[in-house]
Amino acid sequence: MADNETDTLKQGQELKDWDYLISSNKVFTLKFFSFDTSISPYLGVFYNPRRSKISGGYDDRLYNKNPKTIRCAGCCAGCDDIYDLKDRAVWVANRNNPITDMYGKLMIDVHGKLSILSSGVSVVDLVSPTPVARNASGTLLDNGNFILQELYPDGSVKRVLWQSFDYPTDTLLPGMKLGINLKTGHRWSLTSWRSHELPADGSLGSQ
């Protein structure tokens, strides 16, 4: 992407290892990340307490009432580590499907399919809309929700294709849901990380 200071990934664009999206008031970023390795195997949403602005009801103080370092809440047996909250992903797109090389990217193809790819091969398809979407874009909102929408030519929203809030990982953000949609059967639930450096599904869950 030519301009990193944007909240939107447009159809045909690619978000690569060194790129990121940042929400309009700089509350959250969407980026690839790693744990001290040359490969960035995961795509996640991070909170940015020092870069956010008070606007639209999203006050930095709402997300940063406690000290920025907190103890592990029991994601793994015998763990009493301290970690920095601002460096912790609040959502991970491919927690169980890490990228295995240095060529990971997020893209929206010509049909509106949102995918994470590695060396041109799909690692995970987040959504493949039916019918296809010819004018799709993904936007990171100030509440931390990454949302894929199909737009009319004038830029207004035609339909919501997918949103990260429907697939929480281990963190419940304001606006997320837990439970079951009685109409569709879709479940919203939380599952712990396997360890501090492994976002894959852990043993603790909530719904």
UniProtKB/TrEMBL annotation:
It comes from the Eukaryota. Keywords: Glycoprotein, Signal. SUPFAM superfamilies: alpha-D-mannose-specific plant lectins. InterPro entries: Bulb-type_lectin_dom, Bulb-type_lectin_dom_sf. The keyword Glycoprotein applies. It holds the Pfam family B_lectin. The keyword Kinase does not apply. Residues 6-161 form the Bulb-type lectin domain. This is Bulb-type lectin domain-containing protein.
